[in-house]
Amino acid sequence: MSEPADRRYGPATLPTARGPLSAAVVKALRRPPHDLAADLGVDLYPADPVTDEDLQLTLFLCYELHYRGWLGVDESWEWQPTLLALRARCERVFEAALRRLVGAPSVPAAGVAAGLAELVAADDGPALAATLQRRADLTQFREFVVHRSVYHLREADPHSWALPRLGGPAKAALVEIQTDEYGNGRLDRMHAELFRNTLDRLGLDTGYGAHIDAAPAVTLATNNLMSLFGLHRRMRGALLGHLAAFEMTSSQPNRRYGNGLRRLGFDEVATRFYDEHVEADAVHEQIAAHDMCGGLVRVEPALASDVLFGAAVGLAVDRLFAAHLLDSWAAGRSSLRAPAPPAVPPTVSLAVAASTAPAPAVRTVVV
Ligand SMILES: [Fe+2]
Ligand SMILES: [Fe+2]
User: How far is the CA of 165 from the centre of ligand 2 (A)?
Assistant: First the structure.
């Protein structure tokens, strides 16, 4: 395996272990594929699986093998049977915890789109977006971006797992959404690339997976649940429901995130990722709820409750994520496992960024 010259697109560097299970997996992955000890992880009963650092990192280690992989790790690990068996045991614990968290949402007579709207309307999560808009300081905003980088640098990828598992109207609607997420085939408009510019403007490492060690279990859980839904065909309804809830709760918070960065003095290169989502997701939420989830349930009516389960889980874990950040900040602590590193000078030139944004004001950000 040769060292890639460009870290932007992965593979990610193997993270540091957080307990005995993740330590065993990290140690194993550094060697050629082999059978893991049969009793590894056999006593997997953490008190709170969603916020258990060792369990969530172990799941993340296993899942990443299906995305960009890990630097220096043999790619054949992806289908190593005993690693898959360990992942399955972790998944059973995680999925059971997610089902305890939200119960079994009932499908209203008005249909699945109405059910999604009800879930979103009832979502009374902590006011993270308002805090970032009005009060968060630069250190806190950089922390938020570090957390979100785990997803945004591969934005839309987990939901793409659904594409070969669907046909008909739901597939067409998902393609319409994903096409926007991937910049309609333009690299400089891919949402992951827009977010890379935001990281760069905030003086943060833009490499794929650069901030995994800093991300606590709840942040990894927001990612792992997408991988759980995405890698199991039986959970395709939950995957689409998750995407719908994501799109339906995106437009206004992204407006606030962009305004928060502007309040802190950042330019349009930094805010472009958020600004882009204000309008795009106002459209996506309609496509997601009616064409995609509604289309799926018209073809497969039995999946309606799965759609609402996936949406409810997405909202619930995001509430835990928001509460973690706000509680940490209220207590005067970092919300990361390790504080964000000092800023480095931005590298994205305004000329490059101008291809996706109106001419930004030149400004030096001191952080
Ligand atoms: Fe996006
Ligand atoms: Fe979107």
Answer: 20
pTM, two decimal places: 0.93
- Ligand 2 midpoint to CA 280 (Å): 6
The string of pLDDT tens digits covering residues 234-257 is 999 999 999 999 999 999 999 999
Torsion angles phi and psi, residue 69, rounded to 5 = 80, 180
Report how far ligand 1's centroid is from the alpha carbon of 155 (Å). 6
User: Any idea what the Cα angle at residue 94 is, between residues 91 and 96, rounded to 5°?
Assistant: 105
Distance 276 CA to ligand 1 centre (A): 8
Distance (Å) from CA 194 to ligand 2 centroid: 13
Confidence of residue 343 (pLDDT cuts 50, 70, 90): confident
